[in-house]
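Researcher: Please translate sequence to structure tokens.
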Amino acid sequence: MTIERKSEVATNRDPIEIDWNEARRIIEEEGGILIDLRKAEDVKKEPLPSARRVDVDDILLYKFKFDKGKKYVFVDYLGITSKILCEYLKKLGIEAFAIKGGIKGIKKE
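Model: Translation complete:
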């Protein structure tokens, strides 16, 4: 017996993953908010200017409030958690983007 599993994709037509150049454009030109999902000690060692550090748990437990009129750009270590989180948030009607490759994706550029 074969079980088929439907993959859920974001209904928003915007891409979920973006490169650092596009992320910067959204932040600088459109007032996007950069959210850093890395651990506090890692952010202290290697901070990103203008980034706000937020725990993923705070987002999932609705402790972090989103403004549906804003765009959010997420960064983590490799981009995996950010991508999954963005797929979830887009289903809730929040414009969310993940930086492809996470912090390593930023370092490449």
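Researcher: Any highlights?
Model: The helical segments are 20-30, 40-45, 56-60, 80-91, 102-108.
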